[in-house]
Each structure stands twice: as C-alpha cells, then as structure tokens.
Amino acid sequence: MAISAIGVGSGLPLDELLSDLRASENIALQQIKTRQADVQNRISAYGKIKSAFEAFQKAGQTLSKEGTFGAYKANTSAESFSATAETSAVSGQYNITVESLANTQTLVAQGLASRTDANGTDGVITFTLGDGSTKTLDLTGKDTSIDGIIEAINADDSLGVQATVLNDGSATPYRLMLSSTETGTDAAITQIDITGNTDGAGSPLADLLNFGTAGSTLQEQAASNAEITVNGITITSQTNSIEDAIEGVKLNLTEANPGKIETLSITRDDSTAKSAIETFVKAYNALQGTIKSLTSYNTETQTANTLTGDSMARRIQNEAREIVNSFSSSGDVRTLSQMGITTNLTSGELTIDQEKLTAALENNLGDVQNLLTGGNGIATRLEQSAENILDANGLIAAATNGAKSISERLQEQFETTSARIDARMANYKQQFSALDGMIAEMNSLSSYLTQQMGMLENLSSGNKK
C-alpha cells in the first residue's frame, strides 16, 4: 500500500516510521509465503515420486507382456522370402524352396466402340468364385455402360473384384478388365452369370461377360497358388503369406526361385526378456534415487530436504524394496540374486551380473518367468501395489490433496493477514497525519508567541531609555 509523504508539517520522520512499521507487519506475510513455498515444493516432490513409480509399474507390465519371455528369432539370408517367429515356434533349421508365388486372376472382355453407351438395361451379375461362394452385383435401374459397371464394381468391396478399362487403340478399343483382389485360386472367378439384362433383342451384358460356360468371351490370365517345399515337403498356399507351414513361423514370399534351396533357422531369442529386465532394474533404481534425494538430510549443513521425514515417501520406498525381494517357492531360480541381480548395500541400487543373467535365461527360463511374472511374482505384486499407491484414492493422491488443502488455507490466511495489515497501516497513517498537523499548529503557535515576546522585550527596552 502506497504511503503519501507526511511529517512535512511537523518535521518528524513519520514516513520512515510508517515504512518501518509496514516492514515489521510484513514479516507475518513473509512467513506465510515461506510456508506456501514449502507446501508447493512438497506437492511437486509427490509428483516426482508418482512419475518414478509409474515408470516402475510400466517396466513391470512389460515383463508380463506376452512375448517378453520365450521369444524366438528367425534367421535367414534368403532372397525368396522373409520370416518372423512367435513364442510358439520351435528351434530348428529348415531348407526352403519357393517354387512359385500366388497371383491374382485377371479377365479382359472384348473391345467396345464406346465406354459410355449402355449395354442393355438393368441386369444382375453373379460371380462364382473358386471356393464355391457367390457374389452378386445388381445393376437394376443403373448405368450398364463400361464406365457404369466399373463404378458399381469398385464401389462394392464385398465382391472381391476390381474393375478398370484398357484401351488397345483399335476401332473397338475399350476393353473391360476385372481383377480379383486376393491371390490364389479360391478367390478367382470361375463363372459369371447374367440375368435380367436386355436390349430388346438379347443380353448385351451376357455377351460382354460370358465366362465359365461354352463360348466364353473373356480372356483370362489365371490365378495361381504359392508353392514351396520345406525340407522336401511340398506346401501350397492361397497367399504369399504362409503361417501354418512351420509351427509358430510366418513366411512372407517375395519371389519365386524354382529349385533354389534357401535356409531358415529358428533360435531362441532372450534379448527381449533381457532388455525388459534391464529396464525394470533401471526403473527401480530411478525410483529409489528419486525418493532418496527428496528425503535426504545433510548432516554437515544440518539441512533437510523437501520430504525429509515424510512417512508416505518412506512407505513407498519400503514397498518397492519388499517387491524386489520377493521369492518363489520352487525352482532353481527363486530370487533375483540367483539370476544375477543383487542389491548394492551402500547405494541400495540393484546391479546386474550380465553373465549370470544370461545363464539364468538360457538354462532356467521357466523359473525366471515364474519369479518375475507368476501368480505371486514380482511384476504381479508390483501391479497390486501400484493400485494402492497410484489410484485416485491412493497414497500419493491422498498426500497431494492434503498438501493442496494446506496451501489453500495458507492462501486464505495470507489474504486475511494482508487485509488486516492494510487496515492497521491506514489507521497508523491517519493517526500520524493528525499528529503531524497538531505539531505543525503547535510549532506555528510557538513561533507566534516567540515573535510576540520579542516585540514586548523590544518595547520594554525602549521605554527604559
């Protein structure tokens, strides 16, 4: 609050006195601000612990994901195919030859002079496919020209057919071309039937799309199935993606190399599991490091940190330790230390013996998986603990909400105290102004009396002469 200059009349340093009083009163406000800053730092610290525990939880969830343990890797330098392996694969080596690729079917109609002239009116086209299924296109009341047929076919994805037009440059250049959208003989058209189409004399559509019966008018490039041999066994497929030839292995055929044998080896791949375990250890160490830094006490300077002595932080720290110290009741690997993960007694961090971890994954994968992700495994216990810690009504939320409530009360206290100080300072100013005026009047009166006394003294001296 601004203070106008007073004390001019009295000559007293009343402005300085008011400033000193304001500074003294503001000590209470500064104390409230300090407490507010402490509370905000506490809220921020809770947020840091929450983020660190969320990262710890996520690392545990990664351990539990399907495919983390028991993964397999497909190794090949083949030019004809690529391969991927799932957890259901079995280690082994395979000699593979890609004899032929699966291809789509194309049908090309005889040429017409116009692509926009109607081919009779109405009509229902029925496509019979190699797998015995039928697809129907109803052109009743619709455009039956080449362009109209193309538009109708391409608008219906369920047909499994795409259409376009070729121009061969002849007197009747426009040739309708139909192509199956999927490879293999099952998706190929084996017959086309036309009903309900007429131009008064016959069925132009039936003449245009006669296929699968005597006198076919469509030129065909036939569909074909993929054919490969695996260790001398012939396998055919409707597509160039083969998932059931080798257990747990997907083959993607890229080119045919008849007679050329190419090798595929399937081996165990523990790199995914190892990476997930390393990430888990890093997340645990980061959580412990965060809590340690926020709760530490400097004995040399005798200064506390933001959460020194905070019970919630200590509880989370202890819960995390208990989780990683869990053990299995059976197997050769029952604890983290038996798979090469130990606790540094000085720092409290987990450290990994890479050779021991590799050996545990290679020789005791089931035990490792049970310890980490079993029904009472480390990742399972972590997820249960996370619910209590991270939920909307969990430990961190309760502590944060409590701190926010304190912050709100402190703000109310600050505003109340500030208003009280302003009122008090206004009263001081009013009193000082009155004092200033009174002293100014007294000074003026004193000067007048002094002047009068001087005049009387001069008169008295003159009379004596």
TrEMBL record:
Pfam families in UniProt: FliD_C, FliD_N
Protein family (similarity comment): Belongs to the FliD family.
Protein name per UniProt: Flagellar hook-associated protein 2
Residue stretches making up the Flagellar hook-associated protein 2 N-terminal domain: 10-105
Complexes and interactors: Homopentamer.
Organism: Neopusillimonas maritima
Chain's role: Required for morphogenesis and for the elongation of the flagellar filament by facilitating polymerization of the flagellin monomers at the tip of growing filament. Forms a capping structure, which prevents flagellin subunits (transported through the central channel of the flagellum) from leaking out without polymerization at the distal end.
GO biological process per UniProt: bacterial-type flagellum-dependent cell motility; cell adhesion
KW Glycoprotein (keyword) present: no
Compartments where located: Secreted; Bacterial flagellum
Domain Flagellar hook-associated protein 2 C-terminal as annotated: residue spans: 223-444
Keywords carried by this UniProt record: Bacterial flagellum, Cell projection, Cilium, Coiled coil, Flagellum, Secreted
